[in-house]
Amino acid sequence: MNLKELLNRTPFLELHGNENPEVSEIVFDSRKAVANSLYVAVKGTVSDGHSYIDAAIEKGSTVIVCEDLPENLDEKTTYLKVKNSSKTLGQIASNFYGNPSEKLNLIGITGTNGKTSVTTLLSEIFKILGYKSALISTVEYRIGEEVIPSTHTTPDVLTLNKILSKAVETGCEYAFMEVSSHGIHQDRIEGLHFKMAGFTNITHDHLDYHKTFNEYLKVKKRFFDELNPEAIAITNADDKNGLVMLQNTKAKKKTYALKTMADFHGKILEADFNGMLLNFNGKEFWTTLTGKFNGYNLLLAFAVAMECGFHEDDVLQAISKLQRVKGRFETLKSDGGIFFVVDYAHTPDALENVLDSINEIRTKNERLITVFGCGGDRDHAKRPEMGKIATRKSTLAIITSDNPRTENPNEIIKEIEAGVEPQNFSKYTTIPDRKEAIKMAIKFAEPRDIILVAGKGHENYQEINGERIHFDDKEMVMELSRLMSK
């Protein structure tokens, strides 16, 4: 593609050198530069791409996009000075791949909790309705039936456009995408055309990155602020910041709620470990998913499908056929009669939601044992909060390791313990080894007791000192409960 085509609808400040060279590839990592490639120098959180301009030219880049021009310009190279390199990268990436997001119904879901569940549920609903779609989520990227391992919740903008371009080529009509706060803040969704945006909730998370809750809130809101007037914004009216998302959006505004009046209103009529009886907009149906948080997830998925123009009965019928999302309130029962719940809950709000859902279902004759930890090298402020919640809402909490990464697991556990209230000191113990912690929970449990293993969900590894070791909570629960029941 030539440079003029790449710069369609893309503003720039200065151009030096050949005005319309052919571009073979776009890169923002100098190590990936090839002959006739265009290198975008992005100022990142860890390093500045401007430091690698010479390296990119040596590897073959003939066009450089940058915010600051080098002192000495190479006469064989074209330099494009722009106001914001990361935004420009998104715009030219879309142009390079033929603006695939404009040829699809691209639906983005953001919020602290529920993004993976809602996008995955939407992908399954639309499959049941007979439509091929793409899925971009924390767990995996999917194009129709093809599954690609996931690297980030929101991948970089080049990868995104490549996935969406392939989705268009293979006949997908819809694409469902998790939109993370990191992805918004780092302009990874720049240049994408969203037909619809959904908001789940916002609670304490990622404050290691965003520093303050207000900053985190503003970043999430930016997604809605930048929607075009033809788009539809759907928010959770029960979340205290739900309507904040709609304040400055040009998009058409819609709401959903379980507690308050909304465009899409739901009620949980019955719930147990096998599922829920729900009422959406006056119609009752059964789902195998359970828990109040899943009531919200399904209601948002219902709202999106309805706004896409499907018939209510068809959508509800599709929802009633859904299976649980991997690692999201997955339930198992051992031969000894112990109930297990494996869930990804790794934020205070998510953990509280799962514990509340279990406590609403259990008759209080069963004990609730919670095994959980917190990830290393991440938000420290949420650790004591999770210690307080787990010990307050469980019969026994076993604090263990999650993904310690480069931190000492014992130090993480100490920070979690700091939040335990004095009246709950007798309700917890600490076992740094996650396998041993699960084993202790099973030893302590009696038939009909419930063990929640929280924090990792779909993940099949533990990250310790830069190494990923195979560890799957569900596999571990099944293996240990089998061994210990013999």
TrEMBL record:
ATP binds at G111, T112, N113, G114, K115, T116, S117. A motif (Meso-diaminopimelate recognition motif) lies at residues 402-405. GO terms for biological process: cell division; cell wall organization; peptidoglycan biosynthetic process; regulation of cell shape. PANTHER family: MUR LIGASE FAMILY MEMBER, UDP-N-ACETYLMURAMOYL-L-ALANYL-D-GLUTAMATE--2,6-DIAMINOPIMELATE LIGASE MURE HOMOLOG, CHLOROPLASTIC. Residues 23-97 form the Mur ligase N-terminal catalytic domain. Pathway: Cell wall biogenesis; peptidoglycan biosynthesis. The modification N6-carboxylysine is found at K220. UDP-N-acetyl-alpha-D-muramoyl-L-alanyl-D-glutamate binds at S30, T153, T154, S180, Q186, R188. Residues 109-305 form the Mur ligase central domain. It is found in: Cytoplasm. Its cofactor is Mg(2+). Gene3D superfamilies: Mur ligase, C-terminal domain, Mur-like, catalytic domain, MurE/MurF, N-terminal domain. Signal peptide: none annotated. Meso-2,6-diaminopimelate binds at R378, D402, N403, P404, R405, G455, E459. InterPro entries: Mur-like_cat_sf, Mur_ligase_C, Mur_ligase_C_dom_sf, Mur_ligase_cen, Mur_ligase_N, MurE/MurF_N, UDP-N-AcMur-Glu-dNH2Pim_ligase. Its EC number is 6.3.2.13. Coiled coil: none annotated. This is UDP-N-acetylmuramoyl-L-alanyl-D-glutamate--2,6-diaminopimelate ligase. The gene is murE. NCBIfam families: murE, PRK00139.1-2, PRK00139.1-4. Belongs to the MurCDEF family. MurE subfamily. Keywords: ATP-binding, Cell cycle, Cell division, Cell shape, Cell wall biogenesis/degradation, Cytoplasm, Ligase, Magnesium, Nucleotide-binding, Peptidoglycan synthesis.
